[in-house]
Amino acid sequence: MDNLITKLKILAEGAKYDVSCSSSGVERKNKGKIGSSRSFGICHTWSSDGRCISLLKVLMSNNCIYDCTYCINRVSNDIKRASFSPEEIAKLTFEFYRRNYIEGLFLSSAVEKNPDYTSENICKALEILRFKYGFSGYIHVKGIPNTSKDLMNKLGFLADRLSINIELPSEKSLKLLAPQKKTKTLLLPMRDLNNKIMENRDERSRYKKAKKFLPAGQTTQMIVGASQDSDYQLLKTSQILYDKFSLKRVFYSAYIPVVENSLLPAVNTKPPLKREHRLYQADWLLRFYNFRADELLSEEIRNFDLEFDPKINWAFNNIGQFPKEINKVSYDELLRIPGIGPKSAGRIVKERKFFPLNYDNLKRIGVVLKRAKYFITCSGKYYGGIDISPELIKYKLGEMENSRQISFF
Ligand code: SF4
């Protein structure tokens, strides 16, 4: 048992840099008080119906044959190594589940011996868990690039979600920091998985009893700030992944320097969390607001402004399109107004069918106007109170933010 706990500490620590859950990397001791946050072991994700699920987050092995410069588990790093057997990982998950610590499993792995060997072990662990222990909870696994197609398909029938981490968005950065990885070997399995998901959807619409293949789809992760890649490069890559492979999510992980290397930011550099946050906001705009990467950034403006969010920045750069008359513009155009999201846009479209909306009507139906008022007219009337100029609006929004902070203290 002691051996198993030691392995769990090592392999949960190695998994914490994967950001598919929000509690990654939290470390807070409870000092004898109620509640605790462990730096390893349990993380959270959200199901399609919005429930928060706790997962056992762990590596199958940290014994990697690859030498990706940015990674704590790389072969040249002098750290404690460990590997779980498939039976061990299955039993551990089941026991944690029985004790009500977790509801699912997030299983990743370093590349041990070779991609097929590693994926075989993950497959065996999942088979034991599903068939011997009868576990039907949520399982998210990491796909190992260069794994044979058959094994990848087998994994797809055992897991709910699979992710192949692209990590770096350009061939140039991969060459520099992860020379054993190639863009093609990362993208091909994503394409194959997407084809299989479509095929399975079609099969299941015809045969109700057909087995589900990756019902929660596929995702990936990119590291922010380990390479010289700009936000534009990262976002363009995400756009391609959403368009071509119907990815459910791209996760962005602010690079935490773990090694002194001239190719990487120095070890005492803070992770670029604000940049990561702006990328998540922009990613949201791609997925739910019909924006394209090329509209938000360009070869000339390659990184997001850290002061204002990507949507309001887009509005500043396209100020000639404003103000928009909320009683006339389409749903898609409403979505482009800063401060108006899909819920508010939906309400506006529904309500304006009966009568033209004024400013008070917007408030009544719950539209938040503190930003939007600078970009709209209601029945021809403008309520911003200042000229529509990015500088003046920035000033007003800055004032608002300051007074919010003062009232908070
Ligand atoms: S293959 Fe994965 S685990 Fe191995 S060094 Fe590269 S990033 Fe780390």
Description:
By secondary structure, this protein is α/β, with parallel strands linked by helices. It folds into three domains: 1-17 and 39-159, Aldolase class I (TIM Barrel); 166-176 and 204-306, no CATH class; 311-408, no CATH class. The chain contains 14 helices and ten strands. It has helices at residues 2-15, 86-98, 115-132, 149-158, 171-177, 183-206, 231-245, 273-288, 293-296, 310-317, 331-335, 342-351, 359-364, 390-408, and strands spanning 41-46, 52-59, 104-108, 138-142, 161-163, 218-224, 249-254, 324-325, 376-378, 381-382. A seven-stranded mixed sheet has the order 1-2-3-4-5-6-7. Helix 3 links the parallel strand 3 (104-108) and strand 4. Helix 2 (86-98) crosses helix 3, helix 3 (115-132) runs parallel beside helix 4 (149-158) and helix 7 (231-245) runs parallel beside helix 8 (273-288). It starts with a helix and ends with a helix. The site of iron/sulfur cluster (SF4) has 9 residues, from loops.
